[in-house]
Amino acid sequence: MEEQLEQVISMPRIGDAAPAFKAVTTQGDINFPADYKDSWVILFSHPADFTPVCTSEFMTFATMEEKFNKANCKLVGLSIDGLYSHIAWLRTIKEKIEYKGMKNVEVNFPLIEDITMEVAKKYGMIQPNEDSTKAVRAVFFIDPKGIIRTIIYYPLSLGRNFDELYRVIIALQAADEFGVATPADWYPGDDVIIGPAGSCGSAKDRMEDGDIDCKDWFFCTKKLDKDTVMDRVLKK
Ligand code: BEZ
């Protein structure tokens, strides 16, 4: 145990360039992130093919793929399994599994084979004190310039909330497009937070601006309607 805790696990961080790799996937070879220039990407790992939580996640993500694609976001999965296991699992999902009203689900996004763990190690997806041979449920949100913008990790036992992943991709794009921040539990249509005042003068001005709602000089929000956000995100 002590030995495991002493291991240094390298993990990319928010703001870092996404580590580059070439890989074999269920949709052919990919060169990452170069092949995804101009798109947002969610690169995510799952512990193993033919396991129940992962199956529920893949069915959910595949069912929502078009929604993510419309927000200029592509999906790329990974596990420490070989290509033939991936193919067999995805065929089984399509042909046999019915879950929560989803059936005949086709997974069209690429699923990386990473039997050597090369990619998983680059992205800190192996967390040995959780499991040394399976990736945890890692989620990397990477912007069109190849920069990591959000990272979320879940343990093996906890299936992800895919509505939350969609909320994150919309919130990141809204923040970039409108130069704002998004408060706790924000959804499109909720008020957004404007940046901190840079001077005493601007602190005073914003307190007096009728379009801005200041709880205090450092905590100011403004309206940003849902259509304005979604039109900008979905039209790009
Ligand atoms: C699952 O997806 O069901 C699972 C995978 C690895 C460990 C525990 C659960």
Automatic annotation (TrEMBL):
Record function comment: Thiol-specific peroxidase that catalyzes the reduction of hydrogen peroxide and organic hydroperoxides to water and alcohols, respectively. Plays a role in cell protection against oxidative stress by detoxifying peroxides.
GO terms for biological process, alphabetical: cell redox homeostasis; cellular response to stress; hydrogen peroxide catabolic process; response to oxidative stress
Natural source organism: Maribacter polysiphoniae
EC number(s) reported in the record: 1.11.1.24
Catalytic activity of the protein: a hydroperoxide + [thioredoxin]-dithiol = an alcohol + [thioredoxin]-disulfide + H2O
Family annotation (InterPro entries): AhpC/TSA, Peroxiredoxin, Peroxiredoxin_AhpC-typ, Peroxiredoxin_C, Peroxiredoxin_TDXH, PRX_1cys, Thioredoxin-like_sf, Thioredoxin_domain
Annotated active site: 54 (cysteine sulfenic acid (-soh) intermediate), 54 (cysteine sulfenic acid (-soh) intermediate)
Enzyme category, top tier: oxidoreductase
One Gene Ontology MF term: thioredoxin peroxidase activity
PROSITE patterns tied to this protein: THIOREDOXIN_2
Main location: cytoplasm
Binding site residues for substrate: 137
Protein name (Swiss-Prot/TrEMBL): Peroxiredoxin
Family membership noted in the UniProt record: Belongs to the peroxiredoxin family. Prx6 subfamily. Belongs to the peroxiredoxin family. AhpC/Prx1 subfamily.
Subcellular location field: Cytoplasm
GO cellular component: cytosol
Subunit and interaction comment: Homodecamer. Pentamer of dimers that assemble into a ring structure.
Keywords: Antioxidant, Cytoplasm, Disulfide bond, Oxidoreductase, Peroxidase, Redox-active center
Disulphides: 214-220
Pfam families (UniProt xref): 1-cysPrx_C, AhpC-TSA
Other noteworthy facts: The active site is a conserved redox-active cysteine residue, the peroxidatic cysteine (C(P)), which makes the nucleophilic attack on the peroxide substrate. The peroxide oxidizes the C(P)-SH to cysteine sulfenic acid (C(P)-SOH), which then reacts with another cysteine residue, the resolving cysteine (C(R)), to form a disulfide bridge. The disulfide is subsequently reduced by an appropriate electron donor to complete the catalytic cycle.
Domain Thioredoxin: 12-174
